[in-house]
Amino acid sequence: MAFSPVYAQLEKHELPLWQKENAGVKEIRVFRDGEQVALRQFRSDGKTAFQMVRNVNSKAEHSVHFYTADGGTDRTVMANSRSGFLVIREQKLGKTRKYFANQTLDYSSLDLDRNNFLSQVRKIRDSISLLSHTKVRHLLDETPHLIQTNHFDDAGKRVKTYNYHHGKLIGLSANTGEADDTENYTKPDGTPSGINIERKEDLVVCIRTDRTEDFFGYNNDRLLVQHTTYELGKLRYTTNNRYDAGKLIHRKFEDLHRKKVIEYSFTYDSSGKLKSILQNDGKKTMTYNYEYSYYTESR
Predict the structure, then answer these.
(1) E strands along the chain, which residues?
(2) How far is Cα 69 from Cα 154, in angstroms, rounded to an integer?
(3) 8 Å CB contact between 114 and 59
(4) Is the separation of the CB atoms in 129 and 122 below 8 Å?
């Protein structure tokens, strides 16, 4: 599971379909030109049960997620046209969090936009077809593979992270005590891995690798307003967000290398939930409309 700040910035220009506040919502359907392109279903306790996104960020895109919780373990089952099949388990043990992952195969972040797994996942539209898929059943039967362990202090602040691959320790990050909060990732032999993360007041403000620097700016409400990425010292990507009363109303993504700009405008209904998103890449404009159903009519 490679760390790629540049790809993380690229993801920011993809359509941000979902918002955090969904109290009382049973189902969200998203339509573009009459075609349903996204679905999100919730359990009565407000937690997401199922999610599907297709043909939104590319014509070949298709992804589904199914979420369950059993005691102290949360599980995510995923099928994705970009990265294949994946089962992630998060185990909560006091001040420790352990993460396990079983996947069809390793892949490079450079291959993600190719949607190499589309033919295998495009017909999966609900949790039944997902869980009954042969590859998913095999992953669920496998012994969970530990990939990461996080340790927290009494205040709930993460103080140390261990990363594993095929059962072997491949990296360690720990707070250095410098400035507000700094994490330096190291290899098992103690040598630097080339990744450094800085935080202020529990917000990430900078991520540095051997090739890239990512800087993050926030407003007084701790909402992200700017994300800039430098690659080998040159400004490569920028993302700027504008808010009104805490709601995201405009996002502008710029790829300075390819001279590409994508803008999003967001509208909300009287209850504060997303009503529509207008996406404009300079060549065409698309509108995404939202429909909601609720567990109760009184909300």
Answers:
(1) 25-32, 35-42, 48-54, 62-70, 73-80, 84-93, 96-103, 146-152, 158-165, 168-175, 181-186, 192-200, 203-208, 212-218, 224-231, 234-244, 247-255, 260-268, 274-280, 285-294
(2) 24
(3) no
(4) no
Of residues 210, 258, 250, 203, the one with CA closest to residue 230: 210
The first and second tokens of residue 264, run together, are 């999003």
The pLDDT value given to residue 72: 84
pLDDT at 112 over 60: no
CA distance 182 to 172: 13
The tokens of 173 are what? 């990050």
Reference 38, options 48, 21, 53, 59; nearest CA is 53
First to last CA, the chain: 41
Residue 94 CB-density burial (10 A; 0-12 exposed, 13-18 middle, 19+ buried):
exposed
Question: What are the helix (H) ranges across 91-210?
Answer: 118-121, 127-131, 134-141
Q: Give the tokens for residue 199.
A: 């935080």
Tens-place pLDDT, residues 37-74: 999 999 998 899 999 999 887 778 899 999 998 888 99
| 3-class DSSP assignment, residue 23 | coil
SS3 120: helix
pLDDT (average), residues 144-152: 92
Query: Which residue would you say has higher pLDDT here, 184 or 294?
Result: 294
Question: What CA–CA distance (Å, rounded) separates 228 from 235?
Answer: 7
